[in-house]
Amino acid sequence: MSRLPTIAPEALDPAQRRVYDTVLSGPRKSVPAPVRIWLRSPGLADPAQRLGAFLRFESELPAKLRELAILLTARATTAQYEWSMHRPLAEKAGLAPAIIEAIAARTPPRFEDADEALTYELATALTRTFTLDETLYARGLTRFGERGLVEFVVLVGYYTMVAMTLNAFQADLPEGTRPPLSP
Q1: Which of 133, 134, 130, 93 is nearest to 115 (CA)?
Q2: pTM recorded for the entire structure
Q3: What is the CB neighbour count within 10 angstroms for residue 67?
Q4: Measuring CA to CA, which residue among 101, 151, 92, 146 is closest to residue 126?
Q5: Which member of 45, 65, 78, 108 has the lowest number of beta carbons within 10 Å of its beta carbon?
C-alpha cells in the first residue's frame, strides 16, 4: 500500500491543481504515480513533470532506445511500477520480448541491433557507476551527438529519480498487477 495516498482532484489546493491540469492538458491521459506523489510539493512537481514530458514526448532519442534505457533503469532500481508502465511501451516501440525478459532476469541480452547494444552499455554504466568512461563516452557522442547524449544521460537520471520516488513512497501498482520484477 502506498505510503502517500492519492489526493482526490477536488482536494487539491490551487497550486497543486495547476500542475494537475497542466499534466492532463499535454499528451498524457492521466496523472502518473510519481507526479501524484510530487504534488505534495507543487513547485517541484511542475518542473519535474515538464522534464519528464520532454524526455518522453519531445526527445530526439528513438522511442525504442529511450524505452530500453528506462527499462534498464527500472531494473537497476527494482522499480516495479516504472517497469510495469514502461514494459508495454518498450514492446510497442519494437523492443524484442527476449531482450525485455533478459533484462528482467538480470542477464545480458543478445542484441542484433548496434544501437540497442550501445544503449544497453550506456545505461548500464550510468546506473552502476554514474559516469561514462572515455571510450563509452566517445561511442555515445559519435552515435547520438551532443544533444542526444545529453538527453540520454538526463533520461537515465530522471528515471532514477522517478524510481526513487516510487520505491520510497511504495507507489501502488495498477490494480490487478503483481510485482513484475524479482528483488
Answers
A1: 93
A2: 0.95
A3: 24
A4: 151
A5: 108
